Amino acid sequence: MTRAKICGITTAEDLRTAVAAGADAVGLIAGVDSDTPRSVTPEQAAELARAAPPFATTVLVTMPETPVAAVDLLDRVGPDAVQVHGELSPAETTRLSTDAGVDVLRAVSPGTAADFDDAADALVVDSLDESGAGGTGETHDWARTRELAASLSSPVVLAGGLTPVNVADAVETVRPFAVDVASGVEAAPGRKDPDAVSAFVREAGVRP
User: Fold this and answer.
1) Cα torsion at 188, 56, 154, 203 (round to 10°)?
2) Where are the domains of the chain?
3) Which of 2, 11, 25, 155 has a CA-to-CA distance to 197 between 20 and 30 Å?
4) Which of 82, 98, 88, 42 is nearest to 65 (CA)?
């Protein structure tokens, strides 16, 4: 079954919403350069990470300038995994994977994914902006991403423009390890819609 991550959790209420819906993971965005309503402070991220129940994976989503900066933030937040956006090179991503002490996910575009294969524990194939940030709300070529996923040794997490309406088709087309959503399940910027979150998790698991 395809796993589902609900990203951009900003409140304990939204954390409970994602967990109650059956999400496998929740994303806590901190330490990013982009202006997003889904970002929280490291202190808030740490509080949310501590509030997550067992078997709900907490993922720090961040844009570090260096592997050392990423490890420092990981120590402050204490998540189960880290998802890295931005400018880290494949070699720096490999170094982070060695030093992090948790699983490392690397956000990539379809065009750069092959460069990071085996540098991280999984690749988040997303519609990134010029800075390498996600959350654009735009889809990309799923057929191309399916071919890409089949050629990679790293597990692929599909992101970019997913919603409860299109996620089942995306899963059927790409056959990813997991899917990742943020704005596609919001009632307002930075706040989740419980019905949309539940529908997304349900639809993500409808097709293998």
Assistant:
1) -50
2) 3-204
3) 155
4) 88
DSSP character for 39? B
Helix %, strand %, coil % for the chain, to 5? Answer: 35, 20, 45
**Among the listed residues 180, 164, 167, the one whose alpha carbon sits nearest the alpha carbon of residue 81:** 180
Phi-psi category of 138—alpha, beta or left, where left has phi over 0 and alpha has psi -120 to 50? Answer: beta
Residue 208 has what pLDDT? 46
Superfamily for domain range 3-204: Aldolase class I (3.20.20.70)
The whole model's pTM is what? Answer: 0.93
Per-residue pLDDT tens over the stretch 66-113: 999 999 999 999 999 999 999 999 999 999 999 999 999 999 999 899
Work out the angle between the directed axes of helices 194-204 and 167-174 (0-180°, nearest 10): 30
Q: What is the pLDDT of residue 130?
A: 54
Which pLDDT band holds residue 50 (cuts at 50, 70, 90)? Answer: very high
Give CA–CA dist 65/81, Å, rounded. 18
Interior/surface letters 158-191, b for 16+ CB within 10 angstroms, e for the rest? bbbbbbbebbbebbebbbbebbbbbbbbbeeebb
Tokens encoding 138 = 């735009």
